[in-house]
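Lab notebook page, bench 4
Experiment: in silico fold of construct C2
Operator: M.H.
Input chain length: 161 residues
Purpose: comparison with the prior construct
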Amino acid sequence: MIVGEIRRYLRDNNTVRVSRSVRDLAYKALSARDEIAKKTVSEPTVEQIAAYLNESAESISCALEAIAEPVSIFDPVYSDGDDAMCVMDRISDENCNDGKWIESIALSEALKGLNKREKAIIDMRFFNGKTQMEAASEIGISQAQVSRIEKSALEKLKKQM
C-alpha cells in the first residue's frame, strides 16, 4: 500500500506528465514489437513498428521514450567490488568541467576591467585570431601601438585573474 501511495504521489506531483494517449501508443508499440519479433525472429525497427500500427516513426519513438524510466546520474552502471562507476562518470565531458567554467567567468570579469580599445585588441588577437598588423589596420593605429596596448592589457588581465 505504501509503495502504491508513493507511486500515486510521484505520478500526480511529477513535473513531467505523459499524456494517456502517448502512454497508450507506447504500450501498443511494445505489444506490436513483441508480435513482430515472434514473426520475424529478430528485433523490429521503429519503422517496422510504425508501419504495423499505421503511425509515424517519430510518434512511436517519442512514445517509447516517454515511458522509459528516468535514470539518475548517480545510479551505478558497473561495480568492481568497492568502487562503483556511476552514469555521471560515463557521460562526463572532459571539455567542460568546473575548472573551465571558473576560468571563463574569471576571464569575463577581468575583461570588464579593460578599456574599449584594449578589449577590441584582445578580442581581435585572441578570439578572432588576427595578427597585430590586421588589428592595427582595422583600428587605424600602428602595429607597434597594438603590441604595446596588447602587452599592457595582458598585464592587467593577469593581475585581475
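Observations: The first helix runs from residue 2 to 13. The chain has two domains: 2-66, 113-160.
Next step: discuss at group meeting.
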